[in-house]
Here is the input.
Amino acid sequence: MDSSLNPKTFVKYLYQQANYYLAHQQVDQALSVCLAALNLDPDYAPISKMLGVIWQVQEDFEQAEFWYRKALKLQPNYAEVYGNLGDIYSQKQDWETAIFNYRKAIECNPNLAVVYLNLAKVLMEIDQQYEGEELWYKALHLEPSLGTFTDYLNLGNRMFQKREINPAIFCYQNAIQANPNGYEPYHNLGEVYMQLQQWDKAIQFYSQAVERNNQMFASYLGLGNANKQLNKWENAIHCYQRAIELSPTAYLPRFQIAEIKLKLQQWDEAIACYQDALKLEYKNPFIYLSLSRAYSYQKQWEEAIAASQKALLLSPNLPHAHTHLGNFLSEIGELETAIQAHQKSHHLRGWNSSLEKDYRFTKDWFSVNIPNWEKALSAFADCPEIQGLEIGSFQGMSACWLLDHILTHATAKITCIDLSFKPEFDLNITKTGVAEKVTKLEGYSQEILATLTHNTYNFVYIDGCHLASVVLQDALLSWNLLKPGGIMIFDDYEYRDPEHPEEDTGKGIDQFLKTISQPVKILYQAYQLIIQK
Here is the structure.
């Protein structure tokens, strides 16, 4: 090299040479070159920084800090120097000073991945887990090569636990890149997509997990659950059976097979599977609860009542169990006890007025929906001039709840349509104390709806005839009556009667959704469907 070059240019060359020596662990040579450079230009900050690094490598932290401080005097925003000072104080376990220097480094240069990583380690060391995890993720996002398979897997698990879904996916995907044969990130991505209700993607990743480890009980269980969500019953049962092979004492796959059998209306097989699950998990109230439903479909009321009572013995404050018990007691004529069971269920669901006002409901297919109704209709609560429309009223349970919780303003009203109102309807509506808010219209809903004024109602509840053709008519006529932004609630969206194929509520609702030209917003979809106009 021609030493007659401009001294500043030559100093830069010497700095690069010192870097080379240090990278090859030739510390003495690096020191010698730095001292030569210092004689040529004592104000070139990178040389002072390099001298700090040389002494730091040799664990002479006092000398290292001296040169780092000199570098900062020459170049106050030298991010790498603050980062290195952070490393020194971190090694001394002077956490406060280390954190200060790391933060200064980030302030000077927000793209130094290794500084985020080192600061994350310090924060997690002093139990500041949340920020530590966030900075750990930031470091790996800036420079993915900094992370190992284990780093990405562990951080992905932490992010998923905090429900930070996109960072979790990023981590698991990078774990797969680091080690394509590790089954854990595939399984965990299956879990992520199950939570996102992206069933096909969940199946894809669970399948890749079991390809890499066919002894994974949890992956087969997850794979079964994802197939179950897509109504791929045979695939789901196969996965659950494989899970049982891997863990013969696990009750959950047996329970899930029972749920499928119930869905397929194979009552005897469902009952047998629930009983198998109970042999392994005899203190689980939810299995007894499902077993009671299976018995009820067989009209085995005494067995259904006994199973509900067993669920309540194990969990006295389980609202569903009180509801089921009330419905089953009603079937054998024990109406007063049934009413008390429903009042208890409503109290547990937060509807205290049901007991206080002594509503007389012998059957309850409504109260399970209260959380979804509260969310969907909360904007109308205690507002003036709100109008609701209900098709199918039975004993008035949904109307009473609406009057107690949503239609509470003096000017709010509800119109109820039924082919023939039950005597209990009038009794219960009177007990609300605001019967004047209720308009009863008796007759065929299609005829009555055609006489009502368009754009009048803030919400409509359709719970009338199960015939697909009638549901379609009710929906189309009601849609015109609903104000823009209004809410429409369909009951029995998943109702099917294999013995009477024309009774297919979901078919009528789906046809309605295809027929209307306006876009709708789906607020909730399960056994009920809630949409916004």
